[in-house]
Amino acid sequence: MSLNCNEILSSDIYKDCSVPAMAGIEVNVTVVPLKYSKYDYSFNSNGVLTYFEPQTIGVTFRIEGIKQAQGVSFELIKKEDSFDTYKHSFSGVILTPSAENKKSLQQLNSGEPYILFVEKKWKGMNLNDAFEVLGWDAGLYMQEVNWNTKESDGIIKFVMATAEGSEETNLPCNFSLGTYVQTKNWIDTKFNP
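^ that's the sequence the OP posted. Answer follows.
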């Protein structure tokens, strides 16, 4: 993965009108604790995560959404005297503000970093670009939690993002185990049994 070191543009940036951009992510997001999870992984030459194997059982969790209530983003953070970095963000919802879900939210806000696996609505040519991983290097931390019974039907809204001062060295990386079906099946069975 790059870190602004001696890299120059090496290929065209093109448009493919057969698969135009599309907003949004699929409704469910997978959360993996960064600090306490042990896993094996590998990236290909394009920076795509092509292998990810947690060594600890039961360390992945699902945040269930609906429609386009949840979303992800990234932004460039320019540095004056250091390498430029990126801020990764996830805006999530808790649709059922039960005691159990509030306890999970409080645990998510324990100060530990997390990696998020998301499936985009836009999946690219041959569905090869469907999955993204946020927080790979530095992790995402809880940044905001809001609940108001007079807004959004009383759901809990929250934001997880890269911590200021320890941002990600790269854009969110793509995740593919070969084909869309292989990757989707793996996430559904490995991460969310």
